[in-house]
Amino acid sequence: MNYTINGHDYKMGYYLADGIYPSWATLMKSISLPMGNKRKYFDRAQEAAQKDVERTFGVLQSRFAIVRQPARIWDTETLALIMRACVIMHNMIVEDEIDLDPNERFDYGGENVQPSHGIPTCTLAEFIEAQKKIRNKEIHFQLKEDLIEHLWNQHPDLYPMEPAS
Amino acid sequence: MRRNLFIRIMNTVEGHDDYFVKKRNAAGVLGLSCFQKITAALRMLTYGVPVDATDEYVRIGESTALESLRRFVVAVVEIFETEYLRHPNEADTAHLLALNEKRGFPRMLGSIDCMHWAWKNCPVESKGQYKGHVNKPTVILEAVASHDLWIWHAFFGCLGLIMISTSFTGLHYLQT
Fold it and tell me: Which residues of B touch A104 (CB under 8 A)?
């Protein structure tokens, strides 16, 4: 599935991440010292959207206090099971409490998505090739520039900027 | 958690694991009910109370409470993982893409970050393994979440493993 941003073609999706993540083609970070209004606007938009995961952790911790305080369990297997169970029950609560159009989601909506690039990787060479694509730095920076332009041109009023102090 | 959701989880877990069914022992004395065991487990999860503090409310022994916590999390993972921690299917992906397109990020599939969970009782011999930029041993949950707070992928472990698993998900999902 290809898509075009600002005249360039891209083949992979991406996640929003914060500053400690590497510059991969599949991760989009904010700019630490944005210069100019376009970049400041992108920065604001990226942080506004990336905040979702921070909110999720906050809600998870307030729902399951065991995750907030130091764990008293002795082995990693039980810790992992507790964390998985908490995440699963968190999702169940999200589904239970959200006001959602009933035909929008949360049913089995077809098969799992099938990746399109000859995945699963069988040989070592294929694996390395796929890793290269994911970790491609040039694509990362090109995608960032294109997203900056895209946000500035297509969605100029989506995220209000604070007045300069 | 609403009451009807609690009841639903309780009934499903009771049907899944025989341990939670209320039984008589050889002397004919009734054991603890499913309500007691699951309430004890959930109180530990949601309020973070110590194990021996649960008996004041639900009249359950310390070792039984621990046992039911362990069995409860295993049952929840076994029963509900296929639905509530599934990989996004086609409808999910389409929904996510449409939502994020509207927010100004075309082809964006979610936000990723890590959360540290301090581990007080980490065994001494593996303490170094679980330390990172935080000076105490922590285990890390790395998750991908969307706007409605749904968690799509969750990895759990120590530092080095996380980035590896991230790039694996990248392989299997981002290239759709």
Answer: 95
Neighbouring C-beta atoms of residue B17, cutoff 10 Å: 18
Task: State the number of CA atoms in the 13 A half-sphere of B65 facing the CB.
Answer: 21
Burial class of B174 by CB neighbour count within 10 A (0 to 12, 13 to 18, 19+): buried
The ipTM is 0.89
Residue spans of the domains in chain B: they are: 3-83, 88-174
Contact state of A88 with B77 under an 8 Å Cβ cutoff: yes
Strands A3-5 and A8-10 come out as antiparallel
Give contacts of B145 with chain A, Cβ < 8 Å: 52-53, 55-56
pLDDT digit string (tens) for A17-74? Answer: 888 888 888 888 888 888 888 888 888 889 889 988 999 999 999 999 998 888 888 8
What element of type H or E holds B46?
helix B34-47
Distance CA A96, CA B148 (A): 12
Structure tokens at B174: 């981002």
Determine whether the interchain pair A13/B174 forms a contact, defined as Cβ–Cβ distance below 8 Å.
Answer: yes
Regarding pTM above 0.90, the answer is no
